[in-house]
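Q: What would this chain look like folded?
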Amino acid sequence: MSKNNKKQHIIQLLFAIAIIILINYIAGYIYFRIDLTTDKRYTISEPSKKVIKELNDIVYIEIYLDGDMPIAFQRMRKSLLELMDEFRVIAGDNIKYSFINPSKSSDQSKRNAIYQELYDRGLNPTNVKDRDREGGIAEKVLFPGAIVSFQGNEVPLNLLINNPGFSAEVNLNNSIQSLEYSFIDAIRKITATERKRIAFIEGQGELDEYQTGDITRELSGYYDIDRVTIKEFVTILDPYEAIIIAGPTDSYSEKSKFIIDQYLMRGGKILWFIDEVKVDVDSLSAGSTTFALYNDANIDDQLFKYGVRINPTIIQDMQCAIIPVNTAISGAQPKFAPAPWIYHPLLGASSNHPVTRNLNMIKSEFPSVIDTVGQNPNIKKEFILFSSQNSRLLNVPALISLEQIKDEIDPYSFNQPYQPVAVVLDGVFESVFKNRIITEYTAGQPFEYLEKSLSTKMIVVSDADIIRNEVRTRADGIFLSPLGYDRYSKQTYGNKDLVMNMVHYLVDKDGIINLRSREITLRLLDKNKTLNQRLKWQLINTLLPLVLIIIFGLTWNYLRRRKYS
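A: My prediction, written as C-alpha cells:
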C-alpha cells in the first residue's frame, strides 16, 4: 500500500471519528424518540404530558411488583418500567420511582408483616400459581400495585383488573392498557390544588346521604361534594361543575325543573339515575308479594325534550344476581339457599366508550329500557350499558313475588336481547321551557333565560340502584357496604368504577378519561402450535443461527482467498 493511500485512509478514519463525536455531542442537546409500534404503546398522550409537566415537586412512586414472578407479571413489570422511564423523560427529577419485592425476606413472619402493611395502605394481594425450579406448582402472593406519594400524602393504586368474564390473559392485557390512565389519574388526584364542586340534588325523595355514602366518599377524593335543595334560587346550581340526580320518588315542581334546565343551558353537566318503575322491596323481603308501578317524578317531558325516553318496563335477565330464598316447607325451620333472581340483571358494558371500557359487570335492580327520541343533529347519543342476550321485558303494572323463583324458566322466552339501560348525550340541547312564560320561576330576580345550551354532556341511567349502596344498622352504628358489593355472592361488581368514570367523563376537560379507550393489541402465542411444533421451532432457533454463521464464514473465506491468491 502506498504512502498516499495510507495517509488518505488515516484522514478518512479521523474524519469519521470526528463526525461520530459531533453527532453524539448534538444528540446530547437534542432529544427525540420514535415509536414504531402500530398501537403506539410507547407514546405518552398529550393530556398526560400536560399533567406531568405541571408538577412543581417530586412525586414518589413505589411499585410492588418485583422478584421471581410468572411470565405474565414479568411482562406487566416490563410495561411499568417503560412507562416510568417515559414519565422521567418528561418530568425529569419530579418523578422518582422504585420497584420493590414485598416477598424478598426469607422470614415468613417478616413477609406477613409487610403483606399486612401493604393491605392496610390499600393494596390488594392476589394469589398466583407458578412452576418452581423442580417443576412443581408453587403458590405465590403478589401485590400488583403502587403507592403514589406527594408532599406527605399518598394514594394506593391497584393495577390488576380482575373481570370474571375475561380470561387471565385478557385481564392482564387490559390492566397493561390502563396503566397510563391509572397513574395519571392518581398523580392528578394527589397533586390537585383546586377542587371542582359536585352536587347531589335532594328534596324530591332522592337517595339520602347514607344510600349514596360510599360513592360520595370515593368522589370526595377528587371533588368537593354538597347536597343541594333546588326549590328557591334560580342560580343555586351555578357553582357546580356537575350535578347528580339519584332516584327521585316525588314529583319535581316546574320551578325545580326550570332551575335544572337553565343549569344545563349554561353548560352544566347532569348525571341522571331514574327509576321509572317503583317496587316495594320491603314487602318482598317479608316474603309477600308487591306490585311494580309507574314512578312519576314529573321529569319525563324534560328528558324527552333532551332526547331520551325511559319506558315503564322491567328488564328480566337470565344473567342475574342471586338472592337467598327460604326453601323449607311451611312451618319448618327456615333454610335459605341462593337462587337466581331475574329482576336483578348483571349488565354488560360497552367496550368502545371510555366510561365503560374494561369494566366488570354492573349489578342492577329492576332496571327499565331507555330509548332515544328526536332528530336533533347537534346531539350525539351513545348507549353504554345493556342487558345480556337472554333478556326480556315486563310491562307495568305487574305483580312480583318471590314465589316466582320456583317457576321453571323457559329460556326461549328470553328473546329480547341487549336492552339499553344507560345512554350518553353530548352536544347542544334545547330548553324544555322554550316558548313558555317563565316569570313565575324567576320571582323577579335578574336572570338571562337561554333557549339553547352551550356544548355540554349528560348521562341518563334507568336504574337508581346502580348508585345505591346497601345500608345496615348494627349495634355499633350504621354500616355502609361498598358500592357494587354483593354480600350473597361475595363479589364486587363494577358499579363504583362506573359511577366514578361517569363523573370524570362529565367533568374532565383535558381528555384524560379518554386514555381508558387506549387499546394495545394482545399478541399471544397459539397454544396448539406451541405444543405440536415445539421441537421444530427449538431446532430453528438453535441450529439455524449456527448454520447461517458457518455459511457466512465459509463464503467470506472463499472470497478473500479468491481475491488475494
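The longest strand covers residues 336-349.
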